[in-house]
Amino acid sequence: MHVQMAVIVAWMSSLGLFAGKMCMLLLYYRIFSHVARTRREIYAAAVFTLPLLAGSFAFPILNAPEPGNPWRRDVRSMVEPYILARTTLAFGVLTLLMDVVIAYIPIPPLLKMKLSRKKKAAVIAIFLTGSM
User: Fold this and answer.
1) In whole angstroms, how far apart are CA 90 and each of 27, 86, 87?
2) Which of 27, 69, 123, 132 could be disulfide-bonded to 65 (CB atoms 3.0-4.6 Å)?
3) Which residues lie closer than 8 Å to 101 by C-beta, 6 or more apart?
4) Residue 67's pLDDT is what?
5) For the chain, what are the domain ranges?
C-alpha cells in the first residue's frame, strides 16, 4: 500500500470514529440532559473522545513529507513496525474503552424509569444495540 493511501485511510477512519462517537453522545445529551450525573458523564466522554480527533489531524501531519520532498513508496518504509503496532494497539484500546463508556451512559437513567422489568430490558437492549 502506498503511503498516501495509508495516510488517507487512517485520517478518514479516525475522523469517522470521532464523528460516530460524538453523534451518540449528542443523542444521549438530547435525551438525558435533564439528569445532572448523566450530563457530566456525557461531557467527560466527549473530552476523552477528543484524542480521536487530534489523532486524525496529527497522523497526516506527522507522516507527510516536507515540501519539495517526494512521498515514500511503501508503508513499511514510513515508520518502524513496532511503533506502528504500538500506536495501532493504543488507538484500538482507546476506541474500545470509549465504546464501553458510551454504551454505559444511558443505563442508569433507563433503570430509574417507571416501567416493568420486561419493558426496561427491551429499552436497554435497544440502546445497547444502537451503541454498537
Assistant:
1) 27, 6, 5
2) 69
3) 41, 45, 48
4) 72
5) 3-105
* DSSP code string of 32-95: HTTSHHHHHHHHHHHHHHHHHHHHHHHHHHHHSPPTTSPPPS-GGGTS-HHHHHHHHHHHHHHH
Query: How many Cα atoms sit within 13 Å of 5 on the Cβ side?
Result: 6
Within 8 A by CB and 6+ apart from 18, the residues are 49, 52, 53, 56
3-state secondary structure of 2: coil
Output DSSP code: residue 132. -
Contacts for 106 with CB less than 8 Å, ≥ 6 apart: 28, 31, 32, 38, 124, 127
Summarised one tens digit per residue, pLDDT across range 15-72 is 888 888 999 999 999 999 999 999 999 999 999 888 877 877 776 777 666 777 776 6
Q: Scanning the structure block, which residue is given the C-alpha cell 417507571?
A: 114
